Amino acid sequence: MKWYLYRFLNIKNNIIYIGKTGNIAQRLAYHFGTRGHLPIECYNETNKIEILELNTKTEMNIKELYYISKYKCKYNICDNNEVVYIKGLEDNDIWKEYNIKKEESESKDEKIKKLLIENKELRIKLKEQHKKNIEELKKAYAIFNEYYVLKEVIEEYEKVTGLTWKKKAYNIVIS
Q1: pLDDT averaged over every residue in the chain
Q2: Residue 102 above 50 pLDDT?
Q3: What is the per-residue pLDDT for 48?
Q4: Is 21 within 8 Å of 4 (Cβ atoms)?
Q5: Distance between CA atoms of 175 and 172, rounded to whole angstroms?
């Protein structure tokens, strides 16, 4: 099995993040797909990705800590700020540029388009629900209005006849 370190470089070729993995394609697809754990600014700032292939997990772990502390990468969280120099540690390291295949990761434009479409669909659903709510409110208002008018008619009738609506209804039924 191969082990990898990977690093993100910005437009000025400054190393802004270093990570490690046993599956480089999957890990970078996570980063630049929908499951990236770093701030979006890190991904936006990344101009180039380089990888270093290693033979052992131990070597990977040691070199990751070494490089993070050496370069003080902007997006790495590191407890130890001291650089530990290990003679010869970097001598045979050959970092290679890594290109993410389109099927492994969505481009920023594709993500934005996808979000805009989802947002538009949500706005359409909300607008439809809003229309339904307005119609329901209109119906409720009409019923309330009818009740209020009927109540006024009954009150006026009671004033004129001296009978309450209930008594009049009772008298009609009995008669």
Answers
A1: 81
A2: no
A3: 93
A4: yes
A5: 5
Q: How far is CA 68 from CA 90, 162, 167, 172, in A?
A: 13, 94, 91, 95
Q: Which structure tokens are listed for 100?
A: 């993410």
What is the tens place of the pLDDT at every residue in 3-17? Answer: 999 999 999 999 999
Query: Tokens standing for 17?
Result: 């993040």
Number of other residues whose CB lies within 10 A of the CB of residue 51: 18
The number of beta carbons lying within 10 Å of the beta carbon of residue 162 is 9
Per-residue pLDDT of 122-158, as tens digits, reads 888 888 898 888 888 888 888 877 877 777 877 787 7
pLDDT(106) > 70: no
3-state secondary structure labels for all residues of the chain: CCEEEEEEECCCCCEEEEEEECCHHHHHHHHHCCCCCCCHHHHHHCCEEEEEEECCHHHHHHHHHHHHHHHCCCCCCCCCCCCCCCCCCCCCCCCEEECCCHHHCCCHHHHHHHHHHHHHHHHHHHHHHHHHHHHHHHHHHHHHHHHHHHHHHHHHHHHHHCCCHHHHHHHHHHC
